[in-house]
């Protein structure tokens, strides 16, 4: 029998923020993303999307480095409000209160950053996630970030786990795999349990 999950909609996520059930929130940028951002070329001013951004410490960090084409998307108002409060000069038009799956690709992005968004979605949406990332990126654009490579058990709400082998199937139709290995610099509670991915759109 197939389990039917409830909708993890804007109300669900806003309630998790309101109730403080936000265990995913690292309260700062995580080491694997910081290391990757530190070697990006700021002069190129890539167009960067952080979907399911939450409180978006990554956007704050990129903004501090001088990246000015950073967009964050989230369906929970709390997430975007937190970034706006911490970084008053972050462009308000780059705060997208929107469903990731409905975002337009005009113009397309150079880079999409993933961290604990994929695992927040109903697993049935995983093929659509890979397809939408490809849709939003220019050819040669990059999807990078972290995916949990662990089993959280038979849970009824996020985070949902999975495996490297499972994920490979979703991304292979659209992306070349540049890196798809266990991260070496994860936060301590996530050590050995997340993949660092860097995929190039075909
Ligand atoms: C587990 S949290 C992760 C937040 C952030 N990436 C982090 O690492 O702190 C998942 C986030 O995705 C957002 N979200 C869930 N479904 C979404 C959707 N369809 N479109 C945009 N954001 C979504 C939620 O509101 C929540 O802020």
Automatic annotation (TrEMBL):
Pfam families cross-referenced by the UniProt entry: TPMT
Q: Return the InterPro entries for the record.
A: SAM-dependent_MTases_sf, TPMT
Q: Mind listing the UniProt keywords for this protein, alphabetically?
A: Methyltransferase, Phosphoprotein, S-adenosyl-L-methionine, Transferase
UniProt keyword ATP-binding, yes or no: no
Cite the GO molecular-function annotations of the record. Answer: S-adenosylmethionine-dependent methyltransferase activity
Residues annotated as transmembrane = none
Q: Name one GO biological process term.
A: methylation
PANTHER family in alphabetical order? PTHR32183, THIOL METHYLTRANSFERASE 2-RELATED
What protein name is recorded for this chain?
TPMT family class I SAM-dependent methyltransferase
Q: Which organism is it from?
A: Hymenobacter cyanobacteriorum
Q: What is the lineage of its organism?
A: Bacteria, Pseudomonadati, Bacteroidota, Cytophagia, Cytophagales
